[in-house]
Specification:
Length: 242
């Protein structure tokens, strides 16, 4: 059986992986869901000095302190950036990286770089001199694609438990040394795999580094760990197998 480390995307903590964790453990896997610095139960640590490197170190230290080897390292959405950097630092401990609704952005690219300029300007004006990126409203009428599959109780849970994201984890660029490559997999939910394959073939920066990796699909919204946890756990189980 495999050893999984599950890294959440923006605004979430280890709690978001609860159902996936239970399903994977029921299959016999060892599972470590993470909360990154400054979020969820660790939101008291949020501050302007929490960076993308901080979150990368969170992942590396968990793996090192727990003496984990042959890790299947899973990063959802914005969690894909620290996952990519952590893999670059300790490739000898990682068996496979699985990007869920994410991808290994090119060196020098930040999450903010993937957002249209007008949205960047709106967010920076809203944040002002602050250091936290507020969570969305979780309104399906305003964001039907990303919030697809989430019922009212789950949306209420997100509104209650989501916490602001340390801003520098979104604005700091990914930095990788180009060390030993590690096998990859992608779990796409809001992008059909036909579109993903086209984007990979075109060298789209969202999916740089996924050429030759395994591709899986869980058709739902952007948060499959909440909308389709059993299906996602089954896909992760498959992705862990050579």
């Amino acid at each position: 059986m495999a050893t999984f480390v599950l890294v959440p995307g923006f605004w979430l903590g280890a709690w978001a992986w609860r159902d996936v964790t239970e399903a994977l453990r029921a299959q016999g896997h060892e599972v470590y869901p993470m909360t990154l610095t400054g979020l969820a139960e660790r939101d008291h640590l949020a501050g302007p000095d929490v960076t993308l490197d901080t979150h990368t170190t969170d992942i590396v230290r968990l793996i090192e302190v727990e003496a984990l080897r042959d890790v299947v390292l899973v990063g959802h959405s914005g969690g894909g950036m620290p996952v990519a950097q952590a893999t670059d630092r300790i490739p000898d401990r990682i068996a496979r990286v699985v990007y869920v609704e994410s991808g290994p952005l090119p060196d020098g690219t930040s999450q903010f770089d993937t957002v249209p300029p007008e949205e960047q300007q709106r967010l920076r004006a809203f944040i002002g001199a602050g250091h936290l990126l507020p969570p969305p409203a979780w309104d399906p009428a305003a964001d039907p694609t990303n919030l697809a599959g989430l019922d009212d109780p789950t949306l209420a849970l997100l509104r209650a438990r989501a916490t602001p994201q340390p801003l520098r984890t979104a604005t700091d660029p990914v930095r990788r040394t180009g060390g030993r490559p590690v096998p990859t997999a992608l779990v796409a939910s809001t992008f059909p795999l036909t579109v993903v394959r086209e984007m990979i073939d075109q060298g789209h920066p969202f999916f740089t580094g996924l050429a030759g990796g395994r591709l899986f699909e869980v058709p739902t919204g952007h948060w499959p760990m909440l909308s389709e946890p059993k299906a996602l756990a089954d896909v992760l189980d498959s992705a862990a197998r050579d």
